[in-house]
Design brief:
The complex is a heterodimer of chains A (109) and B (115). Chain A is mostly beta strands. In chain A, β7 and β8 form a beta hairpin. Chain A has no helices and eleven strands. The N and C termini of chain A lie far apart (41 Å). Helix content of chain B is 0%, strand content 48%. In chain B, strands 2, 4, 5, 6, 9, 10 and 11 form a seven-stranded mixed beta sheet that branches. In chain B, strands 1-3-8-7 form a four-stranded antiparallel beta sheet, with no helix packed on it. In chain B, β5 and β6 form a beta hairpin. Classes of the chains: A mainly beta (109), B mainly beta (115). Chains A and B meet through β4, β5, β9 and β10 of A and β5 and β10 of B.
Chain lengths: 109, 115
């Protein structure tokens, strides 16, 4: 069945360091979304990527969608303590969104 | 704009008991989703409604879970009887565009503990 995996599962970084999480799907996706979930909170939408090879930036966050539309990445430049949380990708096959396993980011001040 | 409302926020029950969760989506959002999020995992879709019709319930354990959205607005998710493995946060989400094309707006969730 459809699987969306993310690596790493956990990441601890010093404040100011960069962070990247990778999302891989077993099947081709029609689009992919990224969400952030703070500890004890609910997922909050960050962005949606639709086109093959698409790159989008939001301040210190850079999102990429792979050429084959099977993988995606989120890169955060110069992490801040406010970036703490779990980042989920959600891959859309056209029938439903499959959420990834998530990457939990801890930022050490 | 009011967000997605869910209640109760917390519920503790014993196994074999029943529980119901309520969700009121953002006004005008045609699509409503119920997700189950077990601690440390990503949200897993249980059921998706478009207005008052079911779009996808393939991952809903229908022997014990049921959901309805009678008037195409608010929705109720019921578990009867509950099992220990049902302990999770039940997240309701809604979207404007629907059918997996738009941003999902999540509620705060209902945390269920089954003892």
């Amino acid at each position: 069945g459809q699987q969306v995996m993310q690596i790493p599962q956990y990441q601890h970084v010093q404040e100011g360091e960069d962070f990247t999480t990778y999302c891989n799907s077993s099947t081709t996706l029609s689009n992919i979304q990224w969400y952030k979930q703070r500890p004890g909170g609910h997922p909050v939408f960050l962005i949606q990527l639709v086109k093959s090879g698409e790159v989008k930036k939001q301040k210190r966050l850079t999102f990429q969608f792979g050429e084959a539309k099977k993988n995606s990445s989120l890169h955060i430049t110069a992490t801040q303590t406010t970036d703490v949380g779990t980042y989920f990708c959600a891959g859309n096959t056209g029938n439903q969104f499959y959420f990834g396993t998530g990457t939990s980011l801890t930022v050490i001040p | 704009e009011a967000g997605v409302a869910q209640s109760p926020r917390y519920k503790i029950i014993e196994k074999r008991q029943s529980v119901a969760f309520w969700c009121n989506p953002i006004s005008g959002h045609a699509t409503l989703y119920w997700y189950q999020q077990i601690l440390g995992q990503g949200p897993k879709l249980l059921i998706q409604f478009q207005n008052n019709g079911v779009v996808d319930d393939s991952q809903l354990p229908k022997d014990r879970f049921s959901a309805e959205r009678l008037k195409g607005v608010d929705s109720t998710l019921k578990i009867q009887p509950a099992k220990l493995e049902d302990s999770a946060v039940y997240l309701c989400a809604s979207s404007l565009k629907g059918l997996n094309t738009g941003e999902l707006f999540f509620g705060e969730g209902s945390r269920l503990t089954v003892l």
